[in-house]
Amino acid sequence: MRTASVPRNARPLGLSSREAEIMSLIAEGHSNGEIAARLVLAEKTVKNHVNRIYAKLGADSRATAILRWTDADGQQG
Fold this sequence. Notes:
Elements (H helix, E strand, L loop, with lengths): L16 H11 L4 H8 L3 H15 L4 H13 L3
Helix pairs in contact: 1-3, 1-4, 2-3
């Protein structure tokens, strides 16, 4: 099983390791249900993580969160 790519600078974005893992899966286009199944979590748990990710990234949508995530990934050394 392939794991999601997590930018090295995820910590400066304020995301925990799990949040960074989930954000990588979101950026790959996975739904909350798919992420829950892949990580063996309840979908509600994934939704809670997503809400915290949005708050930390200052995002109001998946698209905005992905944009900020990929921008941060592109800025790593």
